[in-house]
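REVIEWER CHECKLIST
Item 1: Sequence provided? yes
Item 2: Single chain? yes
Item 3: Sequence as submitted:
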Amino acid sequence: MNAAGTIDRPLTLDPQKQAPMKPSAHEPTGSATEDVSTTGAHDSRQNRTREMQLIPEALARAHMHDRLREAEQERRAIRLAAARRMQRRAERASMRARRALAMAVMQ
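Item 4: Structure as written out by the authors:
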């Protein structure tokens, strides 16, 4: 089997024994032409870096949002406890008034 290897499956994995790369015919010798534009990659990299720099700010914002929500829940719980206390106090006052009325009627 004298089939030549492919790029994905070379005949040998040893780079010393592999055939040297030949320059392509459509490319001039010594040229350093770019086959893809790197401006998009650069912008993408800059965006990614900007996003990476903004991560702590977003994290702090999320943390503050959680803290504000917890504080609001705590305020609601305190108001609910106070409302229940006042309701019990009002019920006790109502019972005292009923007893006083019953005592006044009985006499």
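Item 5: Key structural point noted by reviewer: The chain has one helix and no strands.
Item 6: Recommendation: ____
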